[in-house]
Amino acid sequence: VNRPQPLAHDALPSAGADCLVSAFCLESASPDLAAFTRALGHIGRLLRPGGHLLLIGALGITYYMAGDGVKIPTVPVNEAQVCASLKESGYTLIRLEVYTVPQDMNVGTDDAYGVFFVKAMKE
Ligand SMILES: C[S@@+](CC[C@H](N)C(=O)[O-])C[C@H]1O[C@@H](n2cnc3c(N)ncnc32)[C@H](O)[C@@H]1O
């Protein structure tokens, strides 16, 4: 997702995909908010105009543990930043839902305060 063309050029129909699903990837693959926004633009190139993006991600997350002592740094984003990044990358937001993580579910594997669920359309 850090590359302008994330997949081989013949991996999808030339018109682009109807729908793309990305879950808990962009905030872990992006070093900062600018890279998060660029990644949204990169994956958007895989979609046909009018195609839909279902994007799921963690809110406010700065790290997650991927195994014993393996701490993966992440970019913390909030709802407003996700909306702004989508707009900047050529999507129309259709729906945004947020799940707030209850305190007692925080067991130390990450520091997200919530999860966002987005449905957006590629312009
Ligand atoms: C927290 S895991 C989420 C895995 C899975 N999508 C899920 O929801 O359970 C983050 C995933 O992001 C993906 N990822 C990390 N860097 C990436 C990159 N530069 N390009 C594409 N995918 C990447 C890897 O597959 C990694 O397993």
Indicate the topology:
Layout: E1 17-23, H1 26-29, H2 33-44, E2 47-59, E3 63-65, E4 71-73, H3 79-88, E5 91-100, E6 114-122
Parallel strand pairs: 1-2
Antiparallel strand pairs: 2-6, 3-4, 5-6
Helix pairs in contact: 2-3
Description:
Keywords: Methyltransferase, S-adenosyl-L-methionine, Transferase. This is Phenylethanolamine N-methyltransferase. InterPro entries: NNMT_TEMT_trans, SAM-dependent_MTases_sf. This protein is an alpha+beta fold and 123 residues long. It has one domain: Rossmann fold (3-Layer(aba) Sandwich), CATH 3.40.50.150. Helix content is 21%, strand content 37%. A 4-stranded mixed beta sheet has the order 1-2-6-5, with helices on one face. Strand 3 (63-65) and strand 4 (71-73) form a beta hairpin. Helix 2 (33-44) crosses helix 3 (79-88). The chain is globular, with a radius of gyration of 15 Å. The mean pLDDT is 96. S-adenosylmethionine is lined by residues 1-2, 23-25, 28-29. S-adenosylmethionine binds next to helix 1.
